[in-house]
Specification:
Helix content: 40-55%
Largest sheet: 5 strands, parallel
Number of domains: 2
Strand content: 15-25%
CATH topology of the largest domain: Rossmann fold
CATH architecture of the largest domain: 3-Layer(aba) Sandwich
Structural class: alpha/beta
CATH class of the largest domain: Alpha Beta
Order of helices and strands: EHEHEHEHEHEEEEHHHEE
Number of helices: 8
Strand order of the largest sheet: 2-1-3-4-5
Distance between the termini: 42 Å
């Protein structure tokens, strides 16, 4: 059973998403602004959040920042087509994905399942023990942990999956479209900005100087790679 929080100030949208996500394996929670969403997350075990950006009292961006202070739960932002800058800002402060209004019910269900699967795999499961090391970075795929020079590093499920992909293939260059297709399991529309934001997050968490990365390198015009060290 998965607990999903739907947060939007428009009740019609909340009701529509409840219909799209009707499933015996889902328990759905409702909130109508960021403050309500934070209260629910603090008091319940939430496995995924669907959250609008433009809301009264506390908008989705501010709520996203506060959520990341207490939880790595996957967050999918609900955005309008005109909110491109907000999409990037949302990813920058820790969102895992976004869905553009008006919603395609099939897309909503697929993205929710994809993020839930990644989140639950990151939290445990019977995965074959596999420890990968690149320099001071160690990724234990059984324990789903990452350490840097022996110190634990907290990654979101999406960041973990990108790092795992790069560490499994040291020296191999992956284009943003390839990374997006492999990690999001979706067509790579708007992939460059989305992937770039998550790469920046990884560098901020894993590099001494993110502006001069030692581990996660960009190959201009081609993509990203994990350097062999």
């Amino acid at each position: 059973m998965y607990n999903i929080l739907i947060c939007d100030d428009e009740k019609d949208i909340v009701n529509a998403l409840k219909i799209y996500l009707y499933d015996s394996n889902y328990t759905l929670f409702e909130a109508y602004n960021g403050k309500e969403a934070l209260g629910i997350i603090r008091n319940n075990e939430i496995h995924l959040v669907l959250m609008d950006i433009m809301m009264p009292e506390m908008d989705g961006i501010e709520a996203m920042v506060k959520i990341r202070e207490i939880s790595n739960v996957p967050v999918i932002l609900l955005t309008a087509k005109s909110e491109d800058s907000d999409k990037i800002l949302g990813l920058t402060v820790g969102a895992d994905d976004y869905i553009t209004k008006p919603f395609n019910p099939v897309e909503v269900a697929a993205r929710v399942k994809s993020q839930l699967r990644r989140y639950m795999q990151l939290g445990g499961g019977n995965v074959r023990s596999e420890v990968m090391r690149v320099g001071g970075i160690e990724l234990d795929d059984k324990e789903k942990t990452v350490t840097l020079d022996g110190e634990p590093v907290a990654l979101t499920p999406t960041e973990y999956d990108i790092l795992k992909l790069l560490m499994q293939n040291p020296g191999q260059v992956f284009s943003p479209k390839e990374i997006y297709t492999k990690i999001w399991n979706d067509l790579p529309y708007g992939s460059e900005n989305t992937v770039a934001v998550h790469i920046r997050h990884l560098r901020e968490k894993l590099e001494i100087n993110p502006a001069e990365p030692r581990y996660i390198k960009v190959v201009w015009g081609q993509g990203y790679k994990c350097e062999k060290i």
